[in-house]
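Usage

Read records sequentially. Each one opens with the input sequence:
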Amino acid sequence: NNTMMMPNDRNVKTQEKINSRPIEKNDKLNMKKKDGSSGGNSNGEAVNTPWIYWELSGLTGAADGTVRFYYNEDQLAGISEAVLRVSYWDPNANAWDNNFVQSVNAASNYIQVTMPTGMNWTGTSLFAVEDASTPLPVLLESFDISVNKRDAGLNWVTTHEINNKGFSIERKVKTEGGYTAWKEIGFVSGNGTTDKKHTYVFDDKKLNKGAYQYRLRQVDFNGNFEYFSPSSTSDIVIGNPNMFDLGQNYPNPSNPKSKIDFQMPFDGKVSIKVYDLLGREVVTLLDANMTADFYTVEFDGTNLASGTYFYRIIAESGTEKFTKTLKMILVK
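and closes with the structure output:
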């Protein structure tokens, strides 16, 4: 038995057995009260209710004994002992997991957990009290991001969802002074309540050169929310283009506006002009010095007649020169 002090200076007896052996000196069990918000505001150290957690070290992948988590009733914030659960913060999945064999002994004020085997326990593993009547909304199995040229592809997998409205995708951009504020760039609908595995994807397309960070803001139908970060915390980097290119305008036909993408592998002077079928210049879309990057310009045919037009890019830097001409159709 170990004896520890609660924040309110009450002694609590803790019994623990791991791998059918007594607790040794290098094992640690601390119970603390965590300040913070409940109801889906997750930061890796907060469960929905209340603010009590334990830190255990010395666990191994073969841990298969039982652990008793003792609590004081006055710290349960009115939560019924019948719905208490213990959850483990899984840093690999970036989510809480309560899929353990466990039971509540209300008479002696403890939750007994049968420790699962084969877990990839961290150096200090975090456990917390949870109200099972308002369970954690989503368990993520993975969240990864890949880069394809100037597009970032987000992919995440859930294994469990409760009342899940969906995921707001948020992005911030690295600047010379740090990062911009988080900004919502899209929303992917969830699957409500399900215990089946679901895969979600979101493509953030046509990014400019730079470094980006992403996160998910999972929202339930009651307005509660929880943040999830990708498995890798490294910046998503979009580098310089490796070649000149001019893309087909979209949509084509235009009615009356469309966009045109182009890319430059180095700094230089760029002009993009629009011509009619007789070769007469009708619009200058761009005429400026540009740095190496990905760009988009807009064509507005409001003041032009319907018909077929051509647009041409000329990019120059020193001895380098790039020219390309494409056709577009204007329908009004």
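Summary fields computed downstream for this record:
- Confidence is low (pLDDT under 50) at residues 1-47.
- The first strand starts at residue 2 and ends at 5.
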